[in-house]
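As a warm-up, study this chain.
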Amino acid sequence: MRNHSTILFTLLAVLCAVLFVVDIAVGSVAIPLSEVVSVLFGGGSAEVRSIVLDIRLVRTIVAVIAGIALSLSGLQMQVLFRNPLAGPYILGVSAGASFGVALFLLGMPLLGIAASPILQSIGTAGAAWIGSAVVLVAIVALSRRVKDIMVMLILGIMLSSGVGAVVEIMQYFSSEASLKSYVVWTMGALGDVTASQLAILAPVIVAGLLLAVATIKPMNMLLMGEGYAASMGLNIKRTRHLILISTTLLAGTITAFCGPIGFVGIAVPHIARMVFRSADHRTLLPATALCGAVLMLAGDIIAKLCTLPINTITALMGIPIVIYIVTRNR
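Now compare it with the structure written out below.
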C-alpha cells in the first residue's frame, strides 16, 4: 500500500511540474517549452525572461497556491461536518468576502467616493479578507453556544443567503461601471495578483497550511464521530476552532485576491480519496494538495486557451464530480 501511494505521489508531482511549465508557456504569445525551462534555470533571452518572470510566473504560482488552499479547506470542511458536499464556502466565507467587496466596489460610488486603480486593487483584496474574517468571528461566537455541528451548517447557509440578499440590493442601486467591476471580480481571476500581493498572500496561506497539518490527527479521530473523538481525549471545541480558522485563512485569502473560485474545494478531496483509496489524512492531506494544484493548473491552461474566467472552467470540471458523488451516495 505504501509503495502504491509513493508511485501515485511521484506521478502527481511529475504531472504538476509538467503542467506548471505548460501553464507558463501558454498565453497570448506562445513560448516553446524548452525556452520556458531555460528561463526557469537562469537562461533564455531577455525578452522571454521578461514575459516569463515578470508576468506569467506569478500567475502560475498563484494557480498552484489557490488549488492547494481551496482543496485543503474543502477537505477540512467535509471532515468537520461529515458531509461529502461540504466546501470551503459552506460557512459563508465566500459570502462574507463578496459582501466586503460589494461594500467597497458598489458602496463607494453610492457615497460619491472614487478610488484610483491601485487603491481599488488593494481595497478589493482587503475588503474581501475582512468580510471573510467577520463571518469567521460570527461563526466562532455561535459555535460557543451551538454544540450541534449540523445546526452550525444550517446557520452558515442562512447567513450566506442573508448576505447574498443584501449584496443584490446594493447591485440594484449601483452604477453600471461599479456593477461591472463587481461582476468581473465574481468570475475569479488568477492573473490579477501582482508580485507584491503574492508576497502578502503566500505567508497567510502558509499559516493556514500549518494549521491544516496540525489537524491531521484530530481529523482522523473525527472520522469515527465526535463522541468517539471526545472519548479518546480530543478537545472538540479547540479542533473545531482550528479547522475554522485554517479554512478562513486558506479559502478567505484566495477569495480575497482571486475572487470566488467554486467547486475545487468540493471536488478535489473526493478525487484524492478515489485515487489513493485511503481515508488516513496523513496520506489524504498531501494527496489533496497535489490533486488541487494539478486541477487548478489544468483549469488555468484551459482558461487561457479559451479566454474564459477561471471560475467557469472549475465549475465545468467540478460539477460532473459532484453529480457522481451525489448519485453514488444516493
